[in-house]
Amino acid sequence: MGKVITVYNQKGGVTKTSFVLNVGAILANNGYKTLVVDLDMQANLTAGIGLLEYDYTSFDILTDKKFDINKAIYETKYDNLSIIPSNIELSKADTILNTTIGREVLLRRRLEVIKDNYDFIVVDTGPTLNLLAVNALTAADYLIIPLIPQYFSIIGLKDIMNTYEEVRDNLNEDLQLLGIALSMLDKRVKIGMETKKLLDDNFKGIVFETNISTDTQVIYSQDGRTPLIHFNKNSKALNDYINLTDEILRRLNNGK
């Protein structure tokens, strides 16, 4: 059965989408059948993967109980990589879900239908705590928290951990925190390195050893609607994402 990994942070600008796009593409490139799910109304993951034409989205699978989830799954031009896209219509989903019975488990029930078809399902989320985020956490086997090494990220981490515990206690007792991933790390910036040390000291064994370096190629690849591994194989950030993906696989294989 495939593993569902949700990438979540209640703060924006912490490279959630870049993480899902690039780790998902690397998993697929390594031969793992991978589905990425765009649960962000900004639809940056959908754009970044190069999907331009589609009729159905994550909005349909969440708001129409009779909808066939397979209709919303689109193959990309990359082997082993598929996507459930998003668009601005997803902004209406939270209001609709508020009046729906079983609203927190809708995504989990939908993904259960297709989970065996994939090795990995990686879910991108918006920068807020709403019913879409709760659905993403309730559907997941594992949570990865992306952070940038800034003081306010540390403050926000407490809120994320509280949300994680609430979901575990009330909706998904099997949810595991797989790790905290640091990105946009510049070793020349003192505050960044101090923040990294603070995280390492307080979350030993949870913070991934691999950090994603600041690299303009990430921005260029997104503008080119192409994952880094298919855009610039000499990118420093790509090398970091490859190492991080290997680290994720090791943790999963060790049952951590």
UniProtKB/TrEMBL annotation:
<dbReference type="Pfam" id="PF13614">
    <property type="entry name" value="AAA_31"/>
</dbReference>
<comment type="similarity">
    <text>Belongs to the ParA family.</text>
</comment>
<dbReference type="InterPro" id="IPR050678">
    <property type="entry name" value="DNA_Partitioning_ATPase"/>
</dbReference>
<feature type="domain" description="AAA">
    <location>
        <begin position="3"/>
        <end position="176"/>
    </location>
</feature>
<dbReference type="InterPro" id="IPR025669">
    <property type="entry name" value="AAA_dom"/>
</dbReference>
<comment type="subunit">
    <text>Dimerizes in the presence of ATP but not ADP; ATP-binding is required for double-stranded (ds)DNA-binding. Interacts with DnaA.</text>
</comment>
<protein>
    <recommendedName>
        <fullName>Sporulation initiation inhibitor protein Soj</fullName>
    </recommendedName>
</protein>
<dbReference type="InterPro" id="IPR027417">
    <property type="entry name" value="P-loop_NTPase"/>
</dbReference>
